[in-house]
Amino acid sequence: MSNLGQFDRVAVSNAPYLPANLPPAAFSGVLMRRVAAFFLDFILVSIFSIAIWFALALLTFGLSVLLLPPIFPFVAFFYNGLTVSGPNMATPGMRAMDLELRTVDGQRVPFLIAAAHAVLFYFSTMFMPIFLVALVTDGKRCLHDILAGVIMTRRPA
Questions:
Q1: Which of 13, 74, 91, 113 to pair with 153, CA 20 to 30 A apart?
Q2: What is the pLDDT of residues 105-153, one digit of tens each?
Q3: What are 37-89's pLDDT values in tens digits?
Q4: What is the Cα–Cα distance from 40 to 45, expressed in whole angstroms?
């Protein structure tokens, strides 16, 4: 049995890939909050990427600017993997928007699944119509959530 937080144990759906004991309040407003969380996290990852790029440029006397691949994907991979698999189960943007990411059985997301979820998400941003899947799925899950086996919910009060 998993601990799904402080939500009352109320059935939401009969879908086999959703925890059956989450109330509708766990999914209310999740889509709009996810969009806002993405923009906050995108800004943070960009700041970290620029800082690392400048630090490497200074340390290598400018040679890294010519030789290194783009740093943003690597920073995003570790940023999402470390923050989502950490004790808060959310990136700083998700925490600011009162969201958390869990596996569909309610457990904490391991690092590799959290990082793979981020890769799938950034890949999905190249094909924006894929996000329309969230409008018709139970639990407002995006395609990258389904593929990674995770679910985004509001934080329990």
A1: 74
A2: 888 999 999 999 999 998 998 998 999 998 888 778 899 999 999 999 9
A3: 999 999 999 999 999 988 988 988 878 777 677 888 899 999 999 999 999 99
A4: 9
Q: Read off φ and ψ for residue 87, nearest 5 degrees.
A: -65, -25
**What single-letter DSSP state applies at residue 109?**
P
List the Cα angle 5/10/16 in 5-degree steps: 90
Give residues with Cβ within 8 angstroms of 37, minimum separation 6. Answer: 91, 93, 94, 96, 97, 99
Q: Which among 120, 107, 51 is positioned nearest to 80, based on CA atoms?
A: 120
Quote the tokens at residue 4. Answer: 């799904």
CA distances from 77 to 61, 66, 91, 113 (A): 26, 22, 12, 11
In which residue are the tokens 């995770």 written? 150
Tokens 């959310």, residue?
90
Nearest to 146 by CA among 11, 14, 15, 37: 15
